[in-house]
Write a structure and sequence with these properties.
The chain is of the alpha+beta class. The protein contains three helices and four strands, in the order E-H-H-E-E-E-H. The protein has a single domain, classed as Glutaredoxin. The longest helix is centred in the N-terminal third of the chain and has 10 residues. The structure holds FE2/S2 (inorganic) cluster.
């Protein structure tokens, strides 16, 4: 049973922003109890690569492969979202 799901957009705009490499970086991390899922467009195409963490409903934008280890360690392992990557449309306090 997975406790979290990571949706990594693999649609056109995000792919152009390197989301295939972001997905590969997540898959390279061995994160227990986390399901990593390539997704269709998440409707945030101008700020890709888009990554969404469920059930937390935390959205990350402009994610690069080099950001994946921070998301994995801070958010997925320690429950602390990575502030500077939060999508401003959903997390306005940032
Ligand atoms: S192409 Fe990724 S959010 Fe639309």
């Amino acid at each position: 049973m997975f406790s979290k799901q990571i949706l990594v957009c693999q649609y056109q705009s995000c792919l152009a922003q390197g989301s295939a490499e972001v997905l590969a970086a997540f898959l390279d991390c061995s994160i227990s109890e986390v399901s990593i899922v390539p997704s269709e467009c998440q409707g945030q195409c101008n700020l890709g690569a888009t990554v969404r963490v469920l059930p937390d409903e935390v959205w990350y934008c402009r994610v690069k492969p080099s950001d994946v280890s921070a998301i994995a360690e801070s958010h997925l392992q320690n429950g602390q979202p990575v502030d500077h990557l939060l999508h401003p449309r959903f997390h306005r306090s940032y």
